[in-house]
Each structure stands twice: as C-alpha cells, then as structure tokens.
Amino acid sequence: MGELLDAAMDPTISYDDLAIIRDLWPGKIVVKGVQNVEDSQRLIDAGVDGIILSNHGGRQLDRAPIPFRLLPEVVREVGKDATVMIDTGIMNGADIVASIALGAKFTLIGRAYLYGLMAGGRQGVDRTIAILRSEIERTMKLLGVSTLAELEPRHVTQLTRLMPLAGAPAEAVGGGAPRVRVASGTTARAPKASASASKGTGSRAKN
Ligand SMILES: Cc1cc2nc3c(=O)[nH]c(=O)nc-3n(C[C@H](O)[C@H](O)[C@H](O)COP(=O)(O)O)c2cc1C
Question: What is the mean pLDDT of residues 62-85?
Fold first, then answer.
C-alpha cells in the first residue's frame, strides 16, 4: 500500500502545472486538498473556480490541518471570488449544516457513503443519504431555520480552547475534575482523559 501511495503522490506537481491546465482547459477547474488560506488565495489568483478544503479524510497524514477549522477564514478571504467546498469528517447532517453556516457552498463525503455501501450495497448508500437528509432537517428545525440561506456563522459553536477557570479551586466546583471555560463563555466539567469535547479536537485529523 505504501508503495502504491509513493507512486500515486507526485510532489513535483506545482502551480506552473496548474497554469498549463488553466490555459488548456476552458471549463471550470476545482482543486481538492487545499489546507491553508495562502494556497486558497493563490489558487484563486491562478484562475481556479472552486476549492475543496480537504485533508482527504486524514487517511495519509493523521495530523493534517482540520478543514472545518480553516473554513471561516478561507471563506472570509476568498469566498466572494470562488466556490468554497469542504470535505473530511462529514459524518452526519449537523456537520453539513455547520459547514454551510460557516460559508461552504457544498460538503463532500467519503467514508460515510462507503460505510453504507459496505453494509448494504446501493440500498446502503441510499440509506446513508436518507439519514444525512433527516439529520439536516432535524438540525435545522432545532436551530429554527427553514432554508439553508438562513444559516449563519452564529448558528455554529466551536470549542476553540479549553482551559482551567482561573482561581476556581476544585472543591468550589464540586471536587474532582476542574471546570473549564469554553469559547461561548459558559463552563463545563473537564473530561477526565482528554479535552476532545468538540468536533475535531481529537487526535485524528477530522473536520
Ligand atoms: C477508500 C478511499 C479511497 C480514497 N481515494 C482517494 C483518492 O484516490 N484521491 C483523493 O483525492 N482522495 C481519496 N480519498 C479521500 C476522499 O476523496 C475524501 O477526501 C475523504 O474520504 C473525505 O473524508 P471523509 O472520509 O472523512 O468523508 C479516498 C478515501 C477513501 C475512504
């Protein structure tokens, strides 16, 4: 498998190659695998029509940047000039709703539909899509929105950091685990083993 990957990945491909493709191809160009704001901007300057933020599901590099975290800044920088899409770690409808709320035009799925495929063939894939659709609708109902256009960044809460509450002794918060301050300003009990309390905070590269 490693040998196959070595053969498939060509690190010599560069922006010069993209310029050649752009010259040759009059249609739309979408580049997948974008992992930072600088490349997003550079790709738009090079004439691509859309970018897909993706670390390919974290399959090769487990610690690659998390697309969901990049999304707000990329949309802010290039969202008006290109279609920004996101892929990696989309495992339920709420992930799709959150991504669209943060400015993605589309989300893509990899493993989610493959799980359905393995479990039930074509019917399994149809079932995956039906589950995602119902989760999208349920999430939107809970958020009180009836169209995707109503979704905004304010509908998304991201735990950007977990840190001990300054000056809060353990006994003052019921002993045991210390309390932590989360981005929204509320407090929560710190998990015992790790601080992976939100999307993508675990060690796997996930959105
Ligand atoms: C079995 C498998 C094979 C894949 N092969 C490729 C590939 O050849 N090229 C590529 O760009 N991404 C490939 N991917 C990555 C997917 O296109 C997609 O980026 C990724 O699965 C999305 O993350 P998710 O699985 O968390 O939804 C592959 C993924 C899986 C699961």
Answer: 94
